[in-house]
Amino acid sequence: AKIVTDVVCPFCGTLCDDLEVALSDDGKEILEVYNACAIGATKFLHSQASDRLTRPQKKQEDGSWKEVTYDEAADYTAKMLVDAKKPLMYGWSSTSCSAQGVGAEIGEEVGACMDNTATVCHGSTLIAVQDVGVPSATLGEIANRADRVVFWGCNPAHAHPRHMSRYSIFPRGFFTGKGSKSRQMIVVDPRNTDTAKMADVHLQLEQGHDYELLSAIRVAIRGEKLPDVVAGISKEQIYEVADTLKSGRFAVIFFGMGVTHSLGKNHNIDIAISVTRDLNDYTKAAIVPMRGHYNVTGSGQVWGWQFGFPFCLDLTRGFARYNPGDSSSNDLLVRDELDAVFVLGSDPGAHFPVRSVKKIAQLPSVCIDPHITPTSAVSKMHVPVAFVGVEVGGCAYRMDNVPIETKKVVEPPEGMLTDEEFLQLVLNRVRELKGAA
Ligand code: SF4
What we know:
By secondary structure, the chain is an alpha/beta fold. It has 3 domains: 2-46; 57-121 and 294-436, Rossmann fold (3-Layer(aba) Sandwich); 123-289, Dimethylsulfoxide Reductase, domain 2, CATH 3.40.228. Helix content is 38%, strand content 19%. The chain has helices spanning 38-46, 70-83, 97-110, 123-132, 139-145, 156-159, 163-168, 194-197, 210-221, 235-247, 257-260, 266-279, 296-307, 329-334, 348-351, 354-362, 374-378, 419-436, and strands spanning 2-7, 19-23, 30-34, 57-59, 65-67, 87-91, 113-116, 148-152, 184-188, 201-203, 229-230, 233-234, 250-255, 284-289, 313-314, 321-322, 340-344, 365-368, 381-383, 394-397, 403-406. The strands form 5 sheets. The protein has a 9-stranded mixed β-sheet. A 5-stranded parallel β-sheet has the order 10-9-8-13-14. Strands 1-2-3 form a 3-stranded antiparallel β-sheet. Iron/sulfur cluster binds at residues 9, 11-12, 14-16, 36-37, 39-40, 160-163.
């Protein structure tokens, strides 16, 4: 077998870049994936599925699917977007930055609302960072330096399985030579998760009281008085955690959905950032969101430099407006303001509230995804594309905002397009249609 080294895993925001993939002698088939976690390896192996869709499918009146060409699919998609008054172009997290760039050009041409998966994920983080800034660090710095590691409202043991072994807890770095023994691990979570079970300290707070506990930690850091119990945690434990964090050489707070989507939302992140800022009076401290999809961070970056805003974009007036809570996908769907839905590289059918999914099912819709998903099932057109990071390379941003070039490992099935190539077809067709109008 042939071994391809330094392969980047295109699954989660950890973007592990040390994978090795064994190929058949002719280089066409993936035989084995080494170093990846189970979910990462499965992604590579799924690309080899014998029942994989390799051509676009259009839903017929009777609900059956009919194969069409990529040109026909691009024509349908372009017409749908040009005819719509207010189309939503959603997703953009499981694809490369260059595809995201072409998507943004289409959105600008047709005057779309554009949103990415941050809208149901770390959108509140992006808002908080705009409000108060963020003291950050790269995962490399953390691996080499962090001796106090907090996981707040996240469960990397399941969601980012190699995060702890590669970057945050176990690696033996330059200043962390004893690996996990060099570090104090604190988990804050109302649930006794598999991550919590590994912690030196588990603060099992009352659900939805993150803001109070973060605020109490700020008080404790400053040595001020606390009530006996905050968020279900005794003041003794809060003072102890504050001391542990202050006494380290480098503290890092990783946080996830438990903070961004519990009561308080962006205000929780504001105060978590404030805790980090306060800690910098005593030691070095950073805070990093546990971003989910492998390039959700990149979609915020690309739109940030193209439009000035990272998600919830409304381009319907020909310039970018940004108003999360108003121009966010679910608000637009529930208020029934959209007349077409385009989804790429994500699965709102599985993750949006059922009211929103029902709306997608009623509207003209296109889903671009290598897999059959709940979203493709409710869409009128499904366009399968090559897997980014497996069958085509492309840039992706890791959760700490470091851009990493993913690798092409094998050829896609004969005649299949990448999502960037398909988007380029759509963009050309949109321009033709608009030129003719
Ligand atoms: Fe892939 Fe994430 Fe697993 Fe790393 S931790 S191998 S990036 S799924």
